[in-house]
Design brief:
The complex is a heterodimer. By secondary structure, chain A is mainly beta. Chain A has three helices and 21 strands. Chain B is built from eight helices and 14 strands. Chain B is globular. The chains are: A mainly beta, B alpha+beta.
Chain lengths: ~300, ~325
């Protein structure tokens, strides 16, 4: 017990942030003199199929005096626990609480796809790809972020049209805002937003010609912006062009389907706001006059007469 | 003695006035007055190296009593067109208005509260190259903006009719001097340094500054910026300034840019949609016809077909 206590003093002086040389030295000296040779800990030295030997090589790792040779001497072994001065099989979940000072603890519970996550009251093993949040694992693929030491879901929500204007020349300009499920748009740093517009037919989609210029085409689906925009903006705008119309005109119409989407690190795009159709028409008004019109979300713009 | 003190006071006042006027000229201010909005344009310095990004800052003062919302068009840059003229007033380079239809998270609007001055930074190189021979140049920044307050609701609909377009011309002078590679490197490094958040700065402020620095870095027209532009594409392939960085790399016409782009593409972590535009960048670099670039990319082009990336955005 005295050995443990002495060692813990050395370890604790680091763990508690007391990195004074004196504190470390006192702890170290106590540990060196009190620790008998060939010390073997009952709880140590054995993960499944691995017997880890007593440490052969000690040294300073930053302010931590620890076994430096565990992995080199015995693959699969590491110095994981400040209270047990011996190489051990790689950290077990129950030992994760000490991983904040166990610099060699690269894997958790013998699972290379997990890492130790310290926390209060105790830590856990977290799967790779998650983030450690005071002992809990936040999964960014589920839009989880660590906020005030708690995993919370941060997704864009309540996207809504706040303004629409006719800019003239058949251009419609929409303005949208959205919120974050956390109430703070800054929390949406893992999320991107974009639009997806599907046109009828293949990719690229060639607009009917005439009346549109021959060869006038767009990506189908159109995914903009490219790259997708940061959801933290909480604000988006959409400009709809009449395209390139050239005489002689001919009646034509087509409809595209639009949706605004968001996505997190998983790369799966989800619907934020479904718009429905964007309709465009070129109509013969008689007397040699032609009208271009666009309708989206009940808003309308036109060019009349077409030049 | 009293007279001497008075004289000294006058001298001091004169010195201060003189110093202020010198400061104004080095800040390269220009001014245009509108109805309630007063516009000024400036740069933080007057002397630049060829290819260096020139950050223009518009200072807009609202002398009215109501908040004004200025609409700068698509992505907040659609309102601008630029010209660079030489000392004989001959147009050297011109950049027309940028139209980007479709969805964006960049706002067209800038709120200008009453009795306040608000800044709008734009990078000249987006419109005009600064790869110019040493000399004095005159920049003309044309602005065609609308005011939100002048929009009118159309009766019986949810749609507003946009107000009139206001046009103004802001002018300032800059000087391009011989390239000093070491100094230029320092300028680039100072932009790169903003990738790290200073502890004293709030995240919001830092992100704004970092984005401005990224934009300037992405628009830097120099082979000295190539490694940093490649790094930007590697570390944040979804950066807003990806197209600008690729364009600048293509413009550099260097083997370093070519191999760098190919390395990013071949990295297994490179996403398909990103690959698409990077591959096009490699093909554009081949268009330089440089033998070293052609031989370095022969195998690459046999493996990667050129994608179509020039489709216009409409919705």
């Amino acid at each position: 017990m005295a050995n443990y206590a002495a060692f813990q003093i050395a370890g604790m002086s680091v763990e508690n942030g007391d990195t004074s040389a004196a504190g470390i030295l006192i702890g170290l000296l106590m540990w060196m003199f009190l620790l008998p040779e060939g010390f073997v800990d009952d709880a140590a030295g054995g993960g499944p199929g691995i017997v880890c030997p007593p440490c052969q090589e000690w040294g300073w790792d930053g302010f931590v005096f620890r076994c430096m040779g565990c992995e080199a001497d015995c693959p699969g072994c590491a110095w994981c626990d400040s209270s047990i001065p011996q190489c051990k099989s790689l950290c077990l979940p129950s030992e994760c609480k000490t991983c904040n000072i166990c610099v060699n603890c690269k894997v958790c519970g013998n699972d290379p796809n997990k890492f130790c996550c310290s926390g209060t009251p105790s830590g856990h093993c977290c799967p790779t790809g998650t983030t450690c949040c005071n002992g809990s694992c936040c999964d960014p693929n589920n839009y989880e972020i660590c906020k005030n030491d708690i995993c919370v879901v941060a997704k864009p929500t309540n996207m809504r049209q706040t303004y629409v204007e006719d800019l003239g020349n058949g251009v419609l300009h929409f303005v949208y805002d959205w919120n974050s499920t956390t109430g703070d748009k800054a929390d949406l740093y893992n999320c991107k937003v974009r639009e997806k517009v599907d046109y009828p037919g293949g990719n690229p989609y060639y607009w009917p010609s005439p009346p549109w210029a021959g060869g006038y085409h767009v990506d189908n689906p159109t995914l903009l912006p490219n790259p997708p925009g940061p959801a933290t903006a909480g604000h988006g705008e959409d400009y709809h062009s009449p395209g390139t119309l050239t005489p002689p005109y001919q009646p034509a119409s087509f409809s595209a389907t639009q949706v605004y989407q968001y996505c997190g690190p998983s790369g799966n795009w989800e619907t934020l706001l479904s718009i429905g159709s964007i309709q465009r028409f070129v109509i013969d008004e008689g007397g040699g006059l032609w009208r271009y019109s666009i309708i989206k979300s009940g808003a309308y713009a036109e060019i009349f007469p077409l030049p | 003695m009293i007279m001497k003190l008075k004289q000294f006071g006058r001298l001091l006042t004169m010195t201060i006035i003189l110093a202020s006027s010198i400061d104004m000229s080095t800040n390269a201010y220009a001014q245009e007055s509108g109805k309630l909005l007063e516009w000024k344009i400036g740069t933080s310095k007057q002397v630049f190296y060829p290819g260096e990004p020139v950050l223009l800052t518009l200072n807009i003062k609202n002398s009215g009593t109501q908040e004004e919302k200025v609409n700068f068009g698509m992505e907040g840059i659609g309102a601008f067109s630029m010209e660079i003229r030489d000392s004989n007033n001959i147009i050297i380079t011109k950049g027309s208005k940028i139209e980007r239809f479709g969805f964006t998270t960049r706002s067209s609007f800038l709120d200008v509260p009453p009795s306040k001055i608000v800044q709008k930074p734009i990078v000249l190189n987006r419109w005009c190259s600064t790869l110019l021979p040493p000399g004095k140049y005159h920049i003309i920044c044309n602005v065609e903006y609308r005011l939100f307050s002048e929009d009118q609701k159309q009766p019986g609909t949810i749609v507003f009719k946009a107000g009139p377009i206001h046009k103004l011309q802001l002018e300032l002078d800059i000087q391009i001097v011989e390239l000093d590679k070491m100094e230029f490197e320092k300028i680039i490094e100072s932009l790169v340094a903003l990738e790290v958040k200073p502890e004293s700065q709030s995240t919001g402020e830092w992100l704004e500054e970092r984005d401005r620095a990224r934009e300037m870095l992405a628009l830097t027209e120099s082979e000295l910026a190539v490694p940093y532009q490649l790094k930007l594409l590697r570390t944040d392939p979804d950066t807003w300034f990806r197209p600008d960085a690729i364009n600048s790399l293509v413009k550099s016409g260097t083997l370093e840019a070519t191999t760098g782009l190919m390395q990013i593409i071949e990295d297994p972590s490179c996403k398909e949609d990103v690959k698409h535009v990077l591959i096009d960048g490699v093909y554009r670099l081949r268009e330089t016809g440089k033998p070293d670039i052609l031989s370095a990319t022969n195998e690459f082009v046999a493996k990667h077909k050129r994608p179509f990336v020039d489709h216009p955005a409409v919705d």
